[in-house]
Write a structure and sequence with these properties.
The complex is a heterodimer of chains A (512) and B (386). Chain A has 512 residues and is an alpha/beta fold. In chain A, the strands form 6 sheets. Chain A has a 6-stranded mixed β-sheet with strand order 6-9-10-3-11-12, sandwiched between helices. A 6-stranded mixed β-sheet of chain A has the order 18-21-22-15-23-24, sandwiched between helices. In chain B, 77% of the residues lie in helices and 0% in strands. The longest helix of chain B is centred in the N-terminal third of the chain and has 30 residues, at 2-31. The chains are: A alpha/beta (512), B mainly alpha (386).
Chain lengths: 512, 386
Amino acid sequence: MSDVILEMRNIGKEFPGVKALDNVTFSVTRGEIHALVGENGAGKSTLMKVLSGVYPFGTYSGDIIFNGKECHFKDIHQSEQVGLVIIHQELALVPYLSIAENMFLGNEQNKNGIIDWNGSYSKSVDLLKKVGLHETPNTLISTMGVGRQQLVEIAKALAKEVKLLILDEPTASLNEKDSDNLLELLVQLKAQGITSILISHKLNEIEKVADSITVLRDGATVETMDCHKDKISEDRIIRDMVGRDITNRFPPRDNKIGEVVFEIQDWNVYHPVHSDLKVSTDVNINVRRGEVVGLAGLMGAGRTELAMSIFGRSYGTRITGKALRFGKEIDVSTVDKAIKNGVAYATEDRKAYGLVLIQDLKDNITLANLEAISDGMVINQPKEMSVTSGYREKLNIKCSSLQQLAINLSGGNQQKVVLSKWLFANPDVLILDEPTRGIDVGAKYEIYTIINRLASEGKSIILISSELTEILGVCDRIYIMRDGKIVGEMPASEATPEIVMKHIMTQEVMEK
Amino acid sequence: MKALRTFFKDQIRDYALLIALVVIMVFFQIITKGILFKPVNITNLVLQNSYVITMALGMLLIILTSWIDLSVGSVVAVIGAVAAVLMVKMHVDWVLTVGICLVLGAVIGIWQGYWVAFVKIPAFIVTLAGMLIFRGLTLVILDGESIGPFPTGFQKISTGFIPDVFKIPGIHFTTIVIGIILAIVLVLMDLQARKNQRKYGFEVTPTSIFILKNVIVTIGIMALCYLLASYKGLPNVLVLLFALITFYSFITSQTVIGRRIYAMGGNEKAARLSGVNTPLLLFGTFVNMGVLAALGGLIVAARLNSATPNAGDGMELDVIAACYIGGASPSGGIGKVIGAVVGAFIIGVLNNGMSIMGLGIDWQKVVKGMVLLVAVLFDVSQKNKS
């Protein structure tokens, strides 16, 4: 029997209204690279947060056994002390400090509170050599690329005498060469006895380095495969990831699809800060009257960036391309103009971008179309009241009154407020970005019903979602996006989870 | 009873402020052995605080957007200096001078608003620079000396009273009449608003509270008018203030611009993604502040009857404190015009009462600082509770 370094038994974790993890069992053998895969929202990150003490002992159920000892971590510090280090997708480096300073942040080499710079430097030189990074310890983080920063993170973990290294999508923002380097490093570290857990969406990478693979789905373990014994194929992994029953989770629909209402032609967008980095490349999409079009893809595929660049250039620079409504070019260069030309965008992050949380329902719903409830510049309060109470009824928003603050609503009801706001702006095209993120199953069903009703009323809807089942259950037609490009298009009737996932994840695609 | 309790829980901040003002006034009335409420002192209180209130109106809008303006004290000085040079040295007509100064205030607002809104330099820095720049320019313009006196017409802005049409000896009866009309109008407006709220399903205040509130407001207005009438009547500047307060209350609570300012302060990104031109709006609040600071400067100059190099020194702190004491949130999006006005009066009564007591300027600052801290502490603890 192989030597087990980590065992997580019957782990359960609940958030208000959502069961994020349900009886998960996960075990890692010493000295292996163990890949953890699953759809967005399958529970990978939650599981790792339980493991590293972000969710302290007592807030979850089940046992964690590390190196043969049962562990009750109260915070990240405690988990790091036993040699368990997690490197998050968003790097935790301070840009205006040097490599050495970052490497020993929170773990400073000191005598009586005075930093031992010589010790820090000599130690960091050793560690940099170990990860194969040719930089002096004085280099500022802000002057380095993401790939190199990732290596600094790993060196930082090594400084803490890591035994089990957890990497959450380490290659998500790396180019191919940097990704290869990183994977190579993981294999080297394995030879030195460091065990790794690799969370990734990129199946080719996993096949390259993983010794075993665990698939999570809907907060539960599907299976663990041994790459050296079992026959592993992408198809098998994908089937594990998506293979669930999708009947009855979506309301039935019957849409009458009409002429093309909205069209984007040759749309190109560059990154707002790194202006030579392209985030959308030659995108051509259209949506018809009464049609729900899905934009499928992984996080980071550039879907939100595309949508926001269309909606009043809210993202990116050097934007080129045409937006057409009913075949005529329209001006979408500011949010105000986009709204006036019949485009609306409901953000994926309703708390940060969608709602004014400290204001009430009423103020939030009318914000994007105040002209419609005003006589000149003066707000007609009775009119505002009747308009908003109309939406409260129509969308079944559960609230104590229209003067309830948005911050005090549940996620599902907040989302309905955001939808109300955009419905009141009366657009022809409604772009919905992850409209069901973080809300429970019942509220999801209601949101789907609203989408159906809007389509049947003749609106055109573009739905961005990372949940494949949602895309398949709601849309009439699907575009698939990867690396800022549209890499596939198909009617929903021809799509299966396996086909779509294959387009999303594999490099070689059958071009349509 | 339950209605009463939830009412107080929701509205405690608004009423606590008024109660605090009354408590402070009663305290000083007792400690100064009745001087505070003497008609001449009440009149003085209004005159002394007119410019703080004027500028607090502009400052509130800026604080609502989550920024701040540190330069208003220096703007007061530079506008006073320009007005003095125009009227005393160049003999420009005082009405024209007022016009020029207000335009100059707008230009100052454009200057600062441009850097804050379009170049995105933090307002704290831009207006700190403005604080130095405009104080320096004041010294340049005045050459380190005071200039005065001003034409009588100009002085009357701050020191004049409205004419009495009734001419009853011993009391300025016009003031009483205006007070009665004002009280009736306010009660009628409140009734109408309540009727509308009922009609459209808003939560309304319980009837008992509603009546109590209107009775207290009416008594307050009549008492103030009576006190003013026993001296020289309604000061011109109070009429101006009343017009400004009404205007800005209306703007913030009833108009599209007001709603957008609150939305922008509450969540700038959400406002921008809802089609609000946030930079332009921010720019506008600074231009508005410039004009109101200029008006404040004119009132100060008219009151002192001279322009001095250190006019308005430290005034920005009273103005900002008035807004915070009045319940405005430093992070933006929360605050009311009436709160800022009451806040300004609290500061004013503290200044006035402590001066009558003969407390030194040193201890006055300590007390004001403590009051500011306690007021914000109250806000923070309220927020944490909910």
